[in-house]
Structure formats: C-alpha cells, structure tokens
Amino acid sequence: MRRIILFLLICSVFSLLPGCRAAENRQEILVGVNLALTGVSAPYGNDALTGIQLAAEQYNASGGIFGRKIKLLIIDNASKSDLAAEAVRRLEKNRVTAILGPSLSHLTRAAVKAITKGTCLLTPGATAQSLRPFGAEKAHIIRLCFTDEAQGRVLADKMFSMGIRQAAVVFDPASDYSVSLSAAFTEAFSKQGGNVCDQLSFPERTAEAAPLIHRLKNSGAQALLLPLFYDKGGLFLRQMAEYGCLLPVFSGDGFGNPALSLLAGKKAEEIPVFYTDHTAPEAREIQTGEGKMTLGAYAALGYDTAMTLFEALSLLPERVWSTDEFDDGLLYETLLQTDRVGLTGAYTFSSAGDAFKTPVLITLEKGEPICYQEAA
After folding, report:
1. How high does pLDDT run on average in the chain?
2. N or C: which end of the chain has fewer CB within 10 A?
C-alpha cells in the first residue's frame, strides 16, 4: 500500500520536495500506460492503445471522474522486458493512480517485478498462467483476459470432439506465450487420452521449414497445435500449404489478427484453422463520435481494461481526490468487485485478480474469421 498524506501548508512551504503535490492542483487523474508500441510486439500494443484511448475519450466526454479529466501518461516499452520494467519505475515516479499494460505475458511479468509502491497493474492480454514472479506474489494485478490453461483446454476439447487422438506441436521456445500454451494444451489433451506424437521447435530460417513439414506429414499426427503469434503463424501456414501439408491447425489468441490470412496466402485456405479468441468479431462493434466501428480483439481488451479501471476509480470515496492521499489497496479491492459486461463479454474477477471469462472458438472461412462456437 502506498499512502502519502501531506497538508496543503506543508506542500506550499516545501514545494521542492520530490512527490509533494498540493491537493488543489489535482485537476487531472493520471493513468500510466505501458505498452509495446514499437518492436516485434507492436501490433498488439498499438491495438490495445487504440482501445484505451477511446475509453479515456468517452469517459472524459461524460464528465470524467468527480469532474476531473483522465490523462494518460503513455510509455513505449519497445517490446523489451527491461524497458517494460523501466516504464513501471518512471510511471511510479510520476505517481500514476494505476498502470494499464503491458499486453503480453513476458513483458507483464517484467513490469510486475519492477513495482515497488503497490501500484495496481491491469493487463489486457497477458495469458500466461502465472504473472507474479518470485517476490511479487502479493502484487496488485488485474487480468482482463482468459489464461493459457483455458485456451489449452478449449483446443484439446475441440480436437477430441473431432475424433483427433494424435497431435503434433510446433512451438517457439523463445516465446513465453508459445511455451505456456503448448504445456497447457498437452496436459489437457493427455488427460482426455490424447497423445502428442511429436513436438518441434519453430524453424527460424525458411530453409529449415521443408524438412520439419516433411516430418510432420510422416509423424502420424491428425492435427497440429501451432501456438504462435499471427506473424510467424501466417508464414508457417503458407509453408505448410506450399509443401502439401494440410493438417488441421489449432492455435490460441495470437492468431487473432487480420494479417494472419494475408501472410498465409490464398493456397493456405485449404488448411482447416481453428483458434481461440476473446470474443466473436461481430461483438466488438462500438459507437464513436465518428459512427460505428468494430475493434480488433486486443483493442477491445484495451477498451474493457481501461473502462474497468475508470469505473473502479469513480467508485472510490471523493475524499481520495480531495486530499493528497491514495490507497492502492482500496483501489485493488474495488477492482476485484467488478461485475460488468464489456466488448469482450461479461466478467467478474477471482481473488487473484483473474477474470472469469470463456474463450470463443474461431475458424477461418476463405481467410475470414467466423465465430465457430462459444467455447464451453
């Protein structure tokens, strides 16, 4: 808990002291944003930022929080763990009320580890089962998305319902997301009596794809789990199609980007593709000042994450904003009581701050994402 109580008179006399802030000057509510806006993870960070900014604009247009406008302090972590940690230190130094982001698991863990003042951190899309590294078990974390355990279970259930009992896995050992989802799927599939007959590392060079795909075709696998992000996943689908490997492909929410089909190409439309997502595409339509627009999955998650925070802040006692005192523990307890319906569905939170949410299953039809079914 971070508790700073300073009287107006003291602040006026000692205004040069670090962190001294007169209550009457708190006309804005400062919210930190820690996202990958450049680097390999930029598409996810920029999508989340779109949703966060839209939520802030809408909340401010409706009067803000107790008449105070929300101001976003945005830092680009450049898709690097050390910079995600540095962003937290900078945001805490600026005494933000909470931090939105990062969106991906490895960046979120680095950010959580850097928190020193009890600041609440809300992640839109970090799906790894554990986001609290050693020493940060009591961190104030809110997760708006489902976990890899939930994704793995849904994908295993779908394979089993299709009569698939032998599956291969191609994963990226350098990606926390890929490793985590592979493990979750393998456990769920094995519990049902399925067998992972081959497990291969994603080829870093295009030339290495041919022997790997040849091995897949002769592995006895009836389907392939491909827990990659859309960029690598799309290229591998293209290579599979070129080498005549048409195994059904299953993946997680990393496939949820329109660029997947563009990278995979027309020929890859012959490959049956199923992946989990946070909501059906048609459910992410929102009214803006410029008309209706449909947000991508990560933009919708960013929007819901920001709205969850803003609504919790508006429920705090007004005295929080009229004194130079902020209680992170109170904000966290308020967040845990959230019960709302957003663009990504209805959700409440566990005592650990994880949203109770069910993935949806998406399939591609001629390269277009179609909601296959609400995953049970």
Report:
1. 87
2. C
* CA distances (Å), origin 367, targets 145, 172, 229, 271, 285: 25, 24, 16, 10, 20
The b-or-e profile of 117-131 (16+ CB within 10 A means b, else e) is ebbbbbbbbbbbeeb
The mean pLDDT of 295-306, rounded to a whole number, is 92
366, exposed or middle or buried, with CB in 10 Å at 0-12, 13-18, 19+?
A: exposed
pTM, whole model, 2 decimals?
0.85
Show the CA angle centred on residue 25, arms to residues 24 and 28, nearest 5°: 115
Q: What secondary structure letter does DSSP report for 137?
A: T
DSSP readout, 99-122? EE---SHHHHHHHHHH--S--EEE
91 has a pLDDT exceeding 60: yes
Which tokens belong to 331? Answer: 């904000």
Asked if residues 101 and 34 have their Cβ atoms less than 8 Å apart, the reply is yes
Residue 351 and residue 60: Cα distance in Å, rounded?
30
Half-sphere exposure of 252 (CA within 13 A, CB side): 30
DSSP 72: E
Q: Domains in the chain and their CATH numbers?
A: 8-146+282-348 (3.40.50.2300), 148-277 (3.40.50.2300)
Contact 145, 127 (CB under 8 A): yes
Residue 128 contacts residue 151 (beta carbons within 8 Å): no
The secondary element (H helix, E strand) that includes residue 151 is: helix 148-161
Taking every pair of Cα atoms in the chain, the longest distance, rounded to a whole number of angstroms, is 78
**243 and 210 in contact (C-beta within 8 Å)?**
yes
- Identify how many contiguous H helices and E strands the chain contains and give both numbers: 12, 16
* Model pLDDT, residue 26: 59
Phi-psi region of 128 (alpha: psi -120 to 50; beta: other; left: phi over 0): beta
Measure the CA–CA gap between 58 and 98, rounded to whole angstroms.
19
Per-residue DSSP letters for 162-208?
TT--EEEEEE-TT-HHHHHHHHHHHHHHHHTT-EEEEEEEPPSSGGG
Q: How far is CA 366 from the centre of its chain?
A: 27
Strand, helix or coil for residue 70: strand
Task: Give the full edge-to-edge strand order of the sheet including 360-365.
Answer: 195-201, 166-171, 223-225, 249-251, 273-277, 360-365, 368-374
Burial 31-49 (b: 16+ CB within 10 A, else e): bbbbbbbeeebbbbbbbbb
